[in-house]
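Researcher: We're teaching a course module on how sequence relates to structure. For the next exercise, students receive a sequence and then see the predicted structure as tokens, so they can try to spot secondary structure elements on their own. Here is the exercise chain.
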Amino acid sequence: MEVEYTKDGSVDRSGRSATKRYTGGLVSGILILFNQGLATLAFFGVGVNLVLFLTRVLQQSNAEAANNVSKWTGTVYLFSLVGAFLSDSYWGRYKTCTIFQIIFVAGLVLLSLTSSMLLITPAGCGDHFTPCRTPSTLGEALFYLSIYLIALGNGGYQPTIATFGADQFDGEDSRERHSKKAFFSYFYLALNLGSLFSNTILVYFEDMGMWNMGFWVSSSSALLALVLFLAGTKRYRHFKPSGNPLPRVAQVLVAAVRKWEVAAPTNGEDLYELDGKESIIGSKKILHSDQYRFLDKAATITEADGHFHSAKHPDPWHLCTVTQVEEVKSVLRLLPIWLCTIMYSVAFTQMASLFVEQGDKMSTGTHFRIPAASMSAFDIISVAFHILLYRRVLTPLFSRENYRGLSELVRMGIGLALAALAMIAAGLVEWCRLTRVPQSTSIFWQVPQYCIVGASEVFMYVGQLEFFSRQAPAGLKSFGSALCMASISFGNYMSSILVAVVAKITGGRNRPGWIAEELDDGRLDRFFFLVAAMVTADLVLYVVLARRYKYMEVEEEREEDEEEMLGRVRAS
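Model: And here is the predicted structure for the students to work with:
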């Protein structure tokens, strides 16, 4: 039987060309999806109720706890840039995922030990009735060390595992290409289903003061996720790391500056490029684009470049390839779009902090107490519903007009619009709560705002993952996924600053402020409306930038797209 190899340049664990039968495909993809689900269960077992742990166990104020959660969440996703850099440049995706998952497990175990031995005293404290003792300096220090180890482990692993999962499908094979495109949707679905257990069962026990049990369940889940990931070692497909991208960027800038007075040719075919399919290690040739024409000077051949051009390996500090120049252009094109996604994350992060504090002041209407944090289960259900709706209904519908369906940029714009709508819904719920007897307002009035946030995630975050992965050069794929995580990071930091500024401006001089220590005395509705207005303004700017965005084109991908379009025309 003839052995069939992948066409995208992927290799097996021994560095040989990967075979389609024994590597990658659905088996590897499913293993990674289960790994993601279990790791997410572990992460949200800590994160979803962290704001209440800080207020009840560490005895912090509402504003201080909300700020600390935003900073911690922001740090989680900021570490994604570290993981992406190491993955793309030196370690490769498999090694990066393994190392950061080990750090993640270590952080969770340390948190479990610290909480059970130093913080949860007396036993069972931290519920609605039993206050905890003031934490010791050692206990508080170990607590922060453990949660930031969790941030490092989870943050460094997340963008890499998303890209590594997509690597298991050959983008140049017509059968596997669609699975590769669909992987990010199911990856985000696995992420949300994994958090469903944390947001319902775990959060209930933690709300009842069983913090130790919740943290140990999270530790066990993370360990099981690591074991499952390692179990697929022999089947995974790999791409060799392409080296540190920073020197490549610097080479383009230096070469362009050196040729400041040189006129770049208007025809991209006259610029310097290597022969063959690949231009940079692990990178397919990128077609020339008309934007940022100044950088084309780096690939312009002058008389002084004669001996460099004739050499087998020209000095890249004097003469760069078109693909190397286009790598820099692609990053520059991504940045404005990426900046616009930060404001979305400001709105999204309210679900983990102020939505929970709002729900904690509302009535469940039954003798069974519903933890406020468990309301995020409606967000997860909404995500699952809208992912299936998009994959099964919207994609086939819009593919009739455009074989790719709704573009990633359009979907991200829809996500921004829905985020603004979610903030308006949250503001209206809070306004109703404050104008009635506050404690009599049912917590189920929060369902619409959680469901709208869930719908917005499908359009924004899944669209982001696909967009940044597709538009990042081959040697920067994990960096592309990390940009999605980094927007969440900066959104959390921006939210933290916004909360602090609003509290300072609206509070003081015996005024409770919008985000008061006792929410019944504040005007949280106005804060939600403010965020909605900021997201709307951001959406207007985003639409302008998205309309001007020029997609990066890879030589072979254009040929494949043309073949697929031709096939559709013939089929119709």
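Model: If you want an answer key for the exercise: Residues 562-566, 568-572 have pLDDT under 50 and may be disordered. The radius of gyration is 25 Å.
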